[in-house]
Amino acid sequence: MQISKHKVVTIDYTLTDDDGSVIDSSEGAEPLAYIQGSGQIIRGLESALEGRGAGESLNVKIAPEEAYGTRDESLVRDVPRKLFDAAEINPGMQFFTQSEQGRQVFTVVDVSDSSVRLDGNHPLAGVNLNFAVTVVGVRDATAEELDHGHVHGPGGHHH
Ligand code: ZN
User: Fold this and answer.
1) How many Å lie between the centroid of ligand 1 and the Cα of residue 137?
2) CA of 149 to the centre of ligand 1 (A)
3) Whose CA is closest to 92, among 124, 123, 127?
4) From ligand 1's centre to the CA of 97, what distance in Å?
5) What is the distance in A from the centroid of ligand 1 to the CA of 40?
6) Which tens digits make up the pLDDT trace of 1-11?
7) In 3-state terms, what secondary structure has residue 82?
8) Which of 65, 86, 89, 136 fits a disulfide with 10 by CB distance 3.0 to 4.6 angstroms?
9) Is this model's pTM higher than 0.90 or not?
10) Distance 156 CA to ligand 1 centre (A)
11) Computed from CA positions of residues 46, 51, 53, 55, in that sequence, does the dihedral angle turn out positive or negative?
12) Cα–Cα dist 62/71, whole Å
């Protein structure tokens, strides 16, 4: 069976950046199960997997445009330190805001006595994603899974 729209696909994967640092991996965990064509995984990976079958392994490099987007330097801003309640603010800390545009993550990149520099870019914006993927299984989605918009059973929802 080949991967096409509305197939439930199970994959093992390791994601690295261009320096070879591992960003994410299914190793030591359950394989990832998703519904092809539903936007549950990044677009570039979904299109690379289209037409593949169980047992196939592939290496895919996905440009930021097909993953988490390019960096937008206008999302880097300095805000007054006094706006933060936190006693300690350190680079690497993340703050979340919720608006009509959805949830946005700000990462602290620099701190001085009077101001905090925040970066609103996704931490993986501007990063090439290198996936080493093995297709573990491909099957038809059930009507219930398509209705719920997620996979049931191993690698998916249990309810
Ligand atoms: Zn469900």
Assistant:
1) 19
2) 7
3) 123
4) 28
5) 14
6) 999 999 999 99
7) helix
8) 136
9) no
10) 9
11) negative
12) 15
